[in-house]
Amino acid sequence: MTRRLFHREPESVRQKDLIAATLDSIAELGLSGATVREVSLRAGVTPGLIRRYFDNKERLVIAAYKVFIADLIADAEAGCGDGPPLSRLAGLVRACVTPPVADGRTLAIWAAFIGTVHSDPVMAEVHRDGYQAFRDLIERLVGEALVEQGETLSEQEVRQKAIVINALLDGLWIEISMGGDDFSRLDVVGIALDSVATLIGIDAKTFRE
């Protein structure tokens, strides 16, 4: 366990440090092990300071899940780069199946959180918002890429493709993050790119470039 040095800092920085310590705890110990005491030890603060910002563990976990989802989307979007639409979509696909997005620690944290989605309405709402934000990103990139290729699809058709692509990337992400031997020997980036190219009806070789 790594304890963080915690000094007098702005409240926004303190909250980020507490959330980072929470995510570290969840990654190693699961939700049940990420107690206020455990988080306070990792952050180098008293449990009382945590309650000052988050009232209780439940609010801390919700805040941590929001940050976790937002960071995942930001890491994936960072892979898009600044090129033409097709290139940005390919960049997103690559980012989704490589670290830091596709990563064992990331999967462990996600798995711990996802178990609460069906029992906690607030966590369910955070999950829906995150899913919608990522699907909207895929939908926008797919729509722009198809226009670039001279294709004209309805909004409904583009949305359906985005839903399927999201499901495909989710499945690959889980398998890759689990670290199975089969996937370690495969060209997972190539598989992801070829699959998405097929789904949107473009030449796979063009998409890989």
Structural write-up:
The protein has 209 residues and is mostly helical. The chain folds into two domains: 1-55, Homeodomain-like (Arc Repressor Mutant, subunit A, Orthogonal Bundle); 64-208, Tetracycline Repressor, domain 2. Helix content is 76%, strand content 0%. The protein has helices at 11-33, 36-43, 47-54, 57-78, 85-96, 104-114, 121-148, 155-178, 181-184, 188-200, 204-208. Helix 3 packs across helix 4. The mean pLDDT is 90.
Draw up the topology in text.
Layout (H helix, E strand, L loop, with lengths): L10 H23 L2 H8 L3 H8 L2 H22 L6 H12 L7 H11 L6 H28 L6 H24 L2 H4 L3 H13 L3 H5 L1
Helix pairs in contact: 1-2, 1-4, 1-6, 2-3, 3-4, 4-5, 4-7, 5-7, 6-8, 7-8, 8-10
